[in-house]
Design brief:
The protein is α/β, with parallel strands linked by helices. It has 2 domains: 1-74, no CATH class; 77-208, Alpha-Beta Horseshoe (Leucine-rich repeat, LRR (right-handed beta-alpha superhelix)). It has 5 helices and 8 strands. It has helices spanning 7-16, 22-32, 40-49, 56-74, 89-96; strands at residues 80-84, 103-107, 131-135, 151-155, 162-163, 176-180, 184-185, 200-204. Helix 2 (22-32) crosses helix 4, helix 3 (40-49) runs antiparallel to helix 4 (56-74) and helix 4 packs parallel to helix 5. The protein starts with 6 loop residues before the first helix and ends with a strand. The relative contact order is 0.09. It comes from Rhizoclosmatium globosum. InterPro entries: LRR_dom_sf. This is F-box domain-containing protein.
Length: 208
């Protein structure tokens, strides 16, 4: 069984595979066997090395594999996390399991590349997050389950023009909303006017 093989032997198997099958094999390992089989350094090296040979979807899946391993190992009791680069559902699912996480900053790179231009997955589901900051995000802002969210900041939105998400008004405890340099259009959703807890609203350099 592959899940009983030493990590070093797994490495050797990957290195012997044809170049176009290596990303697929790493994804296979991630999905079918224990994630501890492949250490993050090895995955990151292959993610960078085979970027030129893999399709955007393959690279995106590799990002998910690496991010799951990295986030699971390095974020346990953190209250404040800044996440740079591609944001996959795997990484967000790890954040969902962190009971101490209060501030999450998702900083996507300003790169014209199909891998980096994917929208943020709508899987964030956390009772602990009270402060969410999005920078250089693409696509529509998804509706997440963040019942205790108090601060939301959306800056440098790089997508095609998007309407202001009406679901922002569904956060009953939202106190501060910042939309800056974002490619968003009006009008304001009527749900905004039900935000009785909102004490700070800042909108700057948008298409409103």
């Amino acid at each position: 069984m592959l899940d009983s093989l030493p990590t070093e032997l797994i490495h050797q198997i990957v290195l012997c595979l044809p170049i176009d099958s290596k990303p697929w094999f790493l994804i296979f390992l991630c999905k079918q066997f224990h994630r501890s089989l492949v250490d993050e350094t090895f995955v990151l090296q292959h993610l960078v090395k085979y970027n030129a040979f893999a399709t955007p979807d393959i690279v995106y899946d590799l990002c998910g594999l690496y991010q799951t391993i990295y986030a699971s190992r390095h974020f346990k009791e953190d209250k404040n996390i800044t996440w740079n680069g591609v944001v996959t559902k795997e990484a967000l699912n790890v954040f969902n399991t962190l009971p101490s996480l209060e501030v999450l900053s998702l900083f996507m790179y300003q790169i014209e590349d199909p891998v980096y231009e994917k929208p943020i997955p709508p899987v964030l589901n956390s009772n602990s997050i009270i402060n969410l900051r999005l920078t250089y995000c693409h696509g529509e802002i998804p509706k997440w389950t963040l019942p205790n969210l108090e601060i939301l900041a959306i800056t440098s939105h790089q997508s095609k023009p998007q309407p202001i998400p009406s679901h922002i008004g569904s956060h009953p405890h939202l106190k501060s909303l910042l939309i800056s340099n974002a490619n968003m259009t009006g009008p304001f959703p009527s749900s905004f006017f039900s935000l009785t807890s909102l004490t700070r609203l800042s909108i700057d350099r948008t298409n409103l």
